[in-house]
Specification:
Layout: H1 33-44, H2 54-57, E1 69-71, H3 73-86, E2 97-99, E3 116-122, E4 127-133, E5 137-140, E6 145-151, E7 154-159, E8 163-166, E9 172-176, E10 182-188, H4 190-195, E11 201-203, H5 218-223, E12 244-245, H6 247-262, E13 273-277, E14 292-298, E15 307-309, E16 313-319, E17 322-326, E18 329-333, E19 338-341, E20 347-351, E21 355-361, H7 363-368, E22 374-376
Antiparallel strand pairs: 1-19, 2-3, 3-10, 4-9, 4-11, 5-8, 5-10, 6-7, 6-9, 8-12, 13-14, 14-21, 15-22, 16-19, 16-21, 17-18, 17-20
Bound molecules: fe (ii) ion.
Fe (ii) ion binds next to strand 4.
Length: about 375
């Protein structure tokens, strides 16, 4: 057997960090018959010598197989609509969802190595049956309304700008209470769960267990008051019990950050760049143990600080237009467009107009495992 040369990984999408120096060198061993025989024995024993693999195993910085990529909302929406004409929703398939398949991940239905993201389509009057799984999920609505997602029997209205939670092992189904179809995005920790073998799944009711269409869910009636916590619920919960984060609150928070900035008070991330994180009211931490979600608002003409971050993110433009600069690539984006930023790929955003962007990431996992690191370009 020929000794394989150490495989070198080239960063995709470019990087501001000098990668030419980031190739670990292996010992330049001369390969005689004894060494060849040794490598054959090692392979037959289901072993692998580190010294031929060093540059794969220990890189100077993260080199994701995932690539920066853009999916246009209009294209996604058109395909989801076509799926609505051709593919029924029901038991077995469970959901009419089209997952973002990162071109760097070999055809796997994963947006990044840790994140699943999909557009889901539910036609007028349709029901997606209930089920539950270990994987944590959320939904974000960029347009439309009329669907209720029923989480552990609690019907939760879905409207433009709302962020909705389905924590792991909560039964959930969806029903469309109107004649018009509706689309939204789902985010889950499916790739991470797959990699670490933690998935369980169970079918629930064929119909949603409560077909009512209340404006306000029971979870919101109990939890949706700023800084107020019910005295019956003082234990920390691993996932947020607040099923829906409404756009009116998100919008008001962002608007006030920019107003405070105008008045000279510290409030924004950087000039012209407001942001909020959706949080778990029982801990103040992230809404789900594996996923972080945020909404960023940029004034027209703002450019964000350029940075590298450990961990991967998916962004969706909620409103406005601008440019995502990912490594060496520039992606012009508009409403609904989705962009993936793999680990350690430099990113920045330029706002052509007032720009609102929803972001979700694997940051809670990265932070809890002690891997978090950020490099601000130019610092
Ligand atoms: Fe599900």
């Amino acid at each position: 057997m020929e000794r394989r040369p150490a495989q070198t990984h080239r960063p995709r999408g470019g990087s501001d960090i000098d990668t030419d120096t980031a190739e670990l060198q292996n010992a330049d061993l001369e390969e005689g018959p004894e060494l060849r025989e040794f490598y054959e024995q090692v392979t037959r024993s289901d072993l692998s010598p580190l010294w031929t693999q060093t540059s794969n195993v220990l890189t100077f910085h993260p080199r994701s197989k995932a690539v920066p990529h853009l999916w246009r909302w209009e294209a996604l929406r058109a395909l989801a609509e076509r799926a609505g004409e051709l593919v029924p929703v029901g038991r077995g398939g469970e959901r009419r969802a089209l997952a973002l398949a990162n071109p760097g991940l070999g055809g796997a239905p994963y947006a990044t190595p840790t994140i699943w993201a999909a557009i889901q389509w539910l036609g007028g009057g349709e029901t997606a049956p209930e089920h539950r799984h270990s994987q944590h999920a959320f939904r974000f609505v960029v347009e439309g309304e009329g669907v209720w997602t029923v989480v552990n029997g609690d019907p939760v209205a879905m409207r433009r700008g709302d962020f909705l939670l389905t924590p792991g092992w909560h039964f959930h189904g969806h029903h469309n209470d109107t004649d018009a179809p509706m689309a939204w995005i789902d985010g889950l920790d499916v790739p991470l769960s797959d990699y670490i073998d933690v998935g369980f799944f169970e079918y629930g009711s064929e119909r949603v267990t409560d077909e009512a269409s209340p404006a306000t869910s029971r979870a919101e009636r109990l939890w949706a008051y700023p800084g107020l916590r019910p005295l019956t619920q003082l234990e920390p919960q691993v996932s947020s019990p607040l099923a829906a984060y409404r756009w009116e609150h998100t919008d008001r928070a962002l608007r006030q950050q920019l107003s405070l900035e105008d008045e000279g008070f510290p409030s924004t991330i950087e000039p012209g760049h407001a942001g909020i994180r959706y949080t778990n009211p029982t801990t103040g931490g992230d809404v789900l143990p594996t996923l972080r979600a945020e909404l960023h608002r940029l004034r027209a003409g703002t450019t964000t600080t350029r940075r590298h971050e450990v961990g991967s993110s998916v962004w969706q433009v909620f409103d406005g237009s601008g440019t995502f600069v990912l490594g060496d690539e520039r992606h012009q984006v508009g409403r609904g467009d989705l962009v993936v930023v793999p680990s350690w790929v430099a990113w920045s955003i330029e706002a052509d107009s007032p720009l609102d962007c929803f972001r979700f990431s694997d940051a809670p996992v990265i932070e809890r495992l002690g891997f978090a690191r950020t490099h601000v370009v130019g610092s």
